[in-house]
Amino acid sequence: MQQHQTTVNLSPWTNGPAIVQSAPQPCQLQGAKCVYDKLNLSADGLQRLRTSGRDLPQVFQIDVKLLITPYPDGVLLQLISEFVQEVVYENYHERILRIPPVSALTDLVFRKAPPLQTIAVAAPNNRLTTLSIKQSNIRSMPSALTNLRQLATLALENGALESVSLEPLANCLQLSILILILDNNLLETIDGAFFLPLRRLAYLDLGSNRIQRIEGRPLSLPQVMYIQLVSNQLAELDVTRWNLPNAIEIYLDNNNLTRVPIGIQTLPNLTTLVLPNNLLTVVDLRRLSGWTKLQRINLAGNRLTRVIVTGKGRTSLPNLEQLDLSNNQLTQLRYARWHLPKLSLLVVALNQLTRLPDLFKLFPKLRRAFAVQNPLHCNTIRRWQQYIAEFKLAVDTAMPGMNCATSSTYKLPSGRVICCVE
Q1: Are 7 and 60 in contact (CB under 8 A)?
Q2: DSSP code for 342
Q3: What count of other Cβ atoms lies within 10 Å of the Cβ of residue 29?
Q4: For the chain: N or C, fewer Cβ within 10 A?
Q5: Which pLDDT value is given to residue 78?
Q6: 313: left (phi over 0), alpha (psi -120 to 50) or beta
Q7: Closest Cα to residue 305, out of 283, 334, 276?
Q8: d(CA 294, CA 271)
């Protein structure tokens, strides 16, 4: 019989004595889903699972809400892997995950696996393409991964990884996504040499670690497009020698960076500079001058007191469309030295600005400017009230529904009252 894609979702289970049933109870069909409220493998549960997976051509997902089984999790996986392509464990209860070398499995997902410490694959497996494990106790990359020859997606999330070696992935020729979202783990350094086996990597996520340094061999990921380094402890970063010819975005939110990473403007296809919630105090836009691929800059939530342009004349970012400088400590900005012909969105909210020039004249493509929660002078509000009335410029000092903390207000012709400083 021709096999079709079947997913088994195994919700919380208990070991227990066999429950005698007078006759097999069929599952509840919900479209392409087969739902069992309770399934007892000590009785006829395994037979019913096999029947559902093989003999109901309209069923693509089997959902077991309560599983009663005499089998350990690993044995259960062996039993159902011959006729199921995807298994989702809500809870996995064993220290070792044994992945069958020969099976129908293409996807394995473990949503909670606190006891899990390692993975075993006795021989090459040429079927499994996705392995996702959350909340495990795996502390290093299991060597058995070398036998997962077709693995394309590996996700180890919210775990206990202390060291990373990617040599076990050298045989995973299809691997294009490596996700290591490991909240509150112990990774502190990354060596570029770790990534040498992953020449086809397209997406790398090392967010929510404790990474302080990226050292050793320069990072070389010729196919990678997106890199996540969010919520680490990076204080400085030099990407001058990194080989990332296809990288579009590198996310560096919530680190300890005090300046823009050295050489970031030399990455040939990078379109986004994302550095919110770091420790920057001064940014020199001259460093970014002529960066033709750059479309978006986000420097929100830093400690910026100045955005400068060193040298003579203006600095040009010919394709920049969005600039976010919100939630800093800026008292003034020298907009006239910025040549941003395509700028369409400017955000300078939550600063200490008192005046605004005619932003829409300086930047002809500008559609919206947000300057809310700045102590703007009332004469600035009066001067640009037409932009405010047209909702092109947002300037309210107080949050909606809150009283003004400023010394005065200005009433627009529409009757709307704007907080300002006289």
Answers
A1: yes
A2: T
A3: 13
A4: N
A5: 80
A6: left
A7: 283
A8: 4
Strand order in the sheet with 13-14: 13-14, 67-68, 39-40
Handedness of CA 181, 185, 188, 190 (dihedral sign): negative
346: number of Cβ within 10 Å:
26
- Taking the C-alpha atoms of residue 230 and residue 210, their distance in angstroms, rounded to an integer, is 10
Name residues whose C-beta falls within 8 Å of residue 213's C-beta, 6 or more positions apart in sequence. 188, 189, 190, 234
Q: What angle do CA 314, 315, 320 make, to 5 degrees?
A: 130
Instruction: Supply the pLDDT for residue 261.
Output: 96
Task: Please say whether the beta carbons of 373 and 395 come within 8 A.
Answer: no
SS3 195: helix
Residue 414's pLDDT is what? 85
273 and 294 Cβ atoms separated by less than 8 Å: yes
Residue owning tokens 């990354």? 190
Does residue 51 sit in helix, strand or coil?
helix
DSSP state, residue 47: H
> How many angstroms from the chain centroid is the CA of residue 406?
39
Amino acid at 408: S
User: 361 φ, ψ to 5°?
Assistant: -85, -40
Residue type at 166? L
**What is the C-alpha separation between 364 and 394, in angstroms, rounded?**
18
Round to whole Å and give the CA distance between 244 and 255: 21
Weakly modelled stretches of the chain, pLDDT under 50: 1-6, 11-25, 183
Enter the tokens of residue 118.
Answer: 């390692």
Q: Which residues face 345 on adjacent strands?
A: 322, 368
Task: Give yes or no for a contact between 336 and 310, defined as CB atoms under 8 angstroms apart.
Answer: no
- For 40, phi then psi, to 5°, come to -110, 105
